[in-house]
Amino acid sequence: MVGNAHSTMLKASLSSKRLSLDDCRKPSMKMLNNAFSLDTSPLSADACALAEREIRETPEQVQKSLAELRELLKEKNTLLYKDTDEYLMIFLRPTHFYAQSAYDLMKRLATFKDKHEKIVGNPLPREEKKLFTENNVVNVLVDRDQKNRRVLIINMGSAWDPKSLASEQLFKVLYLVQIASLVEEETQVRGAVIIIDFHGLSTKQVMAMSPSFAMTLLLYIQEAMPLRMKEVHIVRQPFLFNMVWPMFKQFVGDKLKKRLFFHGNKMSSLHKYLDANMLPEDYGGKKPKLNYSSADWYPVLQDLQSYIADWNTYGLKK
Question: 0.85 cut: is pTM over it?
Fold first, then answer.
């Protein structure tokens, strides 16, 4: 019953010239035949039960919160936004359907976009193709974890050449990947997990990680990102990492501290949180060693060009 309510609720479409979630639910044959694709189906029964248990998502609460959030947006009249269920749900889910909290999140995101307009003002996949196809810094596992959460890999060690991918560009890649993940209702409910791999970290990466970059990244994750960030795992960090961590630590809030775990080279420690059966060999898992990168995911971003362009139009009223 809850699943039917969700499916009915999320049928509002975007403008005919732009891609909606319903459009995303009609993937191209290329995506259908490819492991690199997004799950754009309605919530599973298990996800609906989880949503009710963890974030108060029931048909009655959904309708009540949607009405309250619309009223707040109309009353404040300071934000440009899409007045559809599917769009507002993106902000209600991470805030447990408290309308005021959802409004505050929308405002923080709009303020962040305005402040960092050079980076996230209007990023589009077709204009950022090289960031995905010529670097292997950001990757998404094709396999979800044992809780059906998306797992994002960030290679901030030797795989990252700051001359090829500046820290601002790295943030842009992460931002675009996160927007893409929002078309997955399952990910909206279950959240995501990040593995930050510092294997081969050297001074050139350390020099690229400025306090400004650390502050921008963590401010977005903690204050403006409309996605449930469940865990962040730091792995394969060398001694040199001790030079980097103080820059990040000063911006880590109490909530994120509880979800941040350091494992070094002890993959058995990582497996306490992420089942080895769902991880690649790179992290002591039983899946094959990673043989794909963001280049393989780029066509998925390309298919979402119109959806991302639409998302870029929302923010503060000028």
Answer: yes
